Amino acid sequence: MTINIPETPAGYDQTRIIERPDGFYWQDKETDKVFGPFPTLLDAVQDMEYSADSDYEPGESLAEVEAEIGIADWNDPDTGLPAEETHHLEDH
């Protein structure tokens, strides 16, 4: 009895995993950029999946990311937690 294993269509094949003596790497075929080494295949796959789903842009600062998702840029002095409003008055 033969088992048919479906092949991934070429349009979806944008990355690949490479095993080398020092660990596992994954490569983005569009940019030819290689990421790694990772100690296990699972670590390489998880990093590859995280990178593919992330909206992170290189050079983006923490303050820019926090502003983009709506985190206040100052802490409430009474609680020490991020303030709920983005505008505040300071006592002098």
What's the total number of strands?
A: 3
| Rg, Å, rounded | 22 Å
Question: In whole angstroms, how far apart are the ends?
Answer: 82 Å
Structural class: alpha+beta
Biggest sheet character: 3 strands, antiparallel
Overall helicity: 10-25%
Characteristic key phrases:
single chain, 92 residues, alpha+beta, 2 helices, 3 strands, 18% strand
Can you offer a commentary on this structure?
β1 and β2 form a beta hairpin. This protein has a domain of 56 residues. The chain is an alpha+beta fold. The protein starts with 14 loop residues before the first strand and ends in a 23-residue tail after the last helix. It has a three-stranded antiparallel beta sheet with strand order 1-2-3.
Write a compact overview of the structure shown.
With about 90 residues, the protein is an alpha+beta fold.
What is the element layout, followed by pairings?
Blueprint: E1 15-20, E2 23-28, E3 34-38, H1 41-53, H2 62-69
Antiparallel strand pairs: 1-2, 2-3
